[in-house]
Amino acid sequence: MSSFNIDLMNQLGLTKAAASAASSTAKTISGQLGQSDFLKLMTTQLNNQDPTQPTDSSQMLAQMAQFASVSGIQDMQSSIKQLADTLVSNQTVQAASLVGHQVIAAGSNAVLDSNGLSAAIDLSQNTDQLAVGIYDSAGQLVKQINLGSQSQGMIPFNWNGITDSGVTAPNGLYQIKAVANINSTPQAMSTYVASSVNSVMVDSANQKIMLNTSNGDTVNFSDVKQLM
C-alpha cells in the first residue's frame, strides 16, 4: 500500500482492523485507493471514531483536496492523450490524401522522368552566384546549372534531362548539390526535391506521420514544404 494511503488512514483516525476492512477491496483489485475506496474509508471513519475525540475536520478536508487534485491531474492527462490521438488521426487522413500527388521536401535525391527534374534551393543569404550540380548514380557530374545572382529564399529550378555533353540522360534517380557564393566564399546550400507520394505510414514509436516517396526517401509529413 502506498505511503499516501497509509497516511490517509492514520489521519482519518482508523484502527488497524477498521482500516484493513475498508481497504481490503482496494488491495484486491489494484493495490491503490480509488474514489469509491476513499469514500468507504470516510464512512468507516465516521462509524469508528471516538465520539469524545472526533477527527480534526481540517485534516479530512486537506485529504479530500489532495485526492481531488490527483484525480483532476489524471483526468487532464487522459484528455490530453485523447486530443493528441485525435490530432494524429486527422493528420493521417490529410497525409493520405497526398498519395499520388507531388510534394517538395528537404532532400538531395531527385527523379528525372518525362517531365524533367524539379527541385529548389533554400538560399540562406543573397548571392552573386548560385550553381547547381546534378550527379548520376555513379557520382559523375552530368549537368551544371548556373542560376547567377539570386536573393535569399526558395529558388526553384527544373532540368529537362539534357546533359552538358548534349545527350538526353536516362530517366532515374539523380543527386543534386547546390553551392552559393556568400561573401566571396562558396557555401553548400540545402536542397528541396519534388517527388510523388507513394504511401503513408505512422511511426508507432513517436506517432510521427511519414511519407514514402518515389525517390526512395521517407519524409516526415511536417517537413513537406509545398504541395504541387
Topology diagram in text:
Elements: H1 3-12, H2 16-29, H3 35-48, H4 57-96, E1 102-106, E2 109-112, E3 117-123, E4 127-135, E5 141-150, E6 153-159, E7 172-182, E8 185-203, E9 208-213, E10 218-220, E11 224-227
Antiparallel strand pairs: 1-8, 1-11, 2-7, 3-6, 3-8, 4-5, 4-7, 7-8, 8-9, 9-10
Characterize the biggest β-sheet. 11 strands, antiparallel
Order of helices and strands: HHHHEEEEEEEEEEE
What is the rounded Rg? 33 Å
> At CATH's second level, what is the architecture of the largest domain?
Sandwich
Low-confidence spans = 2-19, 25-30
Number of strands: 11
Apparent shape:
elongated
Distance between the termini: 60 Å
Helix residue percentage:
25-40%
Number of helices: 4
Q: At the third CATH level, what is the topology name of the largest domain?
A: Immunoglobulin-like
Strand percentage lies at 35-45%
The structural class is alpha+beta
Level-1 CATH class name of the largest domain: Mainly Beta
- Could you say how many structural domains there are in total? 2
- How confident overall, as mean pLDDT? 76
Describe the structure using short key phrases.
2 domains; alpha+beta; 4 helices; 11-stranded antiparallel β-sheet; Immunoglobulin-like; 37% strand; 228 residues
In short:
By secondary structure, this protein is α+β, with helices and mostly antiparallel strands. The protein has 2 domains: 3-68, no CATH class; 102-227, Immunoglobulin-like.
